Amino acid sequence: MKLWSKYLWPMRRITTWALLVAASTGLPLRAQNAPRGIAMPFTVTGGILVTERPQLEDPSASTVRAGFRAVLYPTLKLGPRWFVYSAVQAHSEPFFYYEAYDPELEAKAEVIQAFLGYSWTAEKKAFNIKLGKLPSAFGAFPLRYDDTANPLLDQPMSYAYRVKLRPDQLPCGVADLLHQREYALDVHHYCGGATEEHYGMIPATLYGLPGVEINVGWQKLDARLQLVNSSPANPQSLLSESQHVQWTAGAGFTIWQGFRVGVSGFRGPFLEQDVSNLLPSGSSTRDYPATGVGTDIQWARGRWSASAEWQRFQFNYPRFRTSPAVSDGYVEVKAILHPRFYTALRAGYENHGRVEDVKGVTSESFLPNRQSYEFAMGYYLNRFQTLKIGYEWLKTKGVSGTRENVFGVQLVTSVHSLAKAF
How many angstroms separate the CA atoms of 369 and 358, rounded? Predict the structure, then answer.
């Protein structure tokens, strides 16, 4: 209890301060269906991580880390159909579980979404178009990136944990990939490319990609098509020299109220300019795309709700007959035990597929497979604040012990009613 009181008190002070700042802005709390207006929802989270993950890189690192995350959602309604939406995030590192492997302490701020949108709706029909920095149309979890929408504390592995593959270096073959097991964090390929440190790629980003998106809905069917400047596995800014226009698409069907199934996919170049001169003669980065396919399910009835996803990602490199591929999946269940109390469980896995290079060298799994199991309890302190406590088990094949497990606490404050009509 002494440890909890030491850190929960600063967390409560952070969220209380955020509420006071919001109240002092003078923005009246009004209905947000006016033809024109501005809104500023926000979520502020204070957290504690207790884990030995930092000691995998630095044995002297502390096992207890306190952090924060603030996400502001400035929204401007220009008329009945036009709007501007954005999401600005500031957070300490580590705050997310996957950041705990890095023992260094940092803080950063970034615009994760910013786009202009047009929306039209009618009975059982809808149309929407967006232009700007957009959340990826791949997968279902990006819609639950906010801490109030995620009943647990961590994210599914495909959206958070890095695969030990580099887009700015070329592996020489299967032996090169197997050698990555020797490194705790850094990834090194040995057939040329960039010289800077790199921690690998997250298969599906939760942050924005510059591009345009069209959404349509008709009765029980919904669909989306997105053209963006880079791969969801390797996002690039508009100033990058490694941009490549590519597509992402998804669709869903609501079988009955509370039960929806969906599919999504993307395909396009992921390699960066650093390796363009190292590719076989007559080829370019477009000849070596990354491909992602996925399915998802959402279900809710009464006190119970559940969601699940399965995804497969393939990253094509020269010198490979069978390129490295990663399969991910998870199942998440939430139960409301009391109007103010819930429990949630997520079980997931990540499998690394068979690889074969042009020399005939093969491996059934180019990296150790792993599984994760996370359990959390949530308590609604009031209509603004939620306290979440959870524990995660991360199991890697061939690795014993509990050094990668995480105990976490979060105090989440969310205000969605700050708005002013014009």
Answer: 24
What radius of gyration do the chain's Cα atoms show?
22
Q: How many residues does the chain have?
A: 422
Could you read off the pLDDT of 341-356 as tens digits, one per residue?
Answer: 999 999 999 999 999 9
Q: Which tokens hold the place of 48?
A: 């504690």
CA–CA distance, 17 with 24 (Å, rounded to integer):
11
Place of tokens 């269940």: 333
HSE-CB of 154 using CA atoms within 13 angstroms: 30
Kindly report whether the peptide bond that precedes residue 94 is cis, defined as omega within 30 degrees of 0: yes
Torsion over CA: 201, 206, 211, 216 (sign): positive
Model-level pTM?
Answer: 0.89
Q: Which residues contact 353 (CB under 8 A, 6 or more apart)?
A: 322, 324, 325, 326, 327, 365, 366
Give the whole-angstrom CA distance, residue 246 versus residue 229: 6
pLDDT in tens, 93-114: 999 999 999 888 899 999 999 9
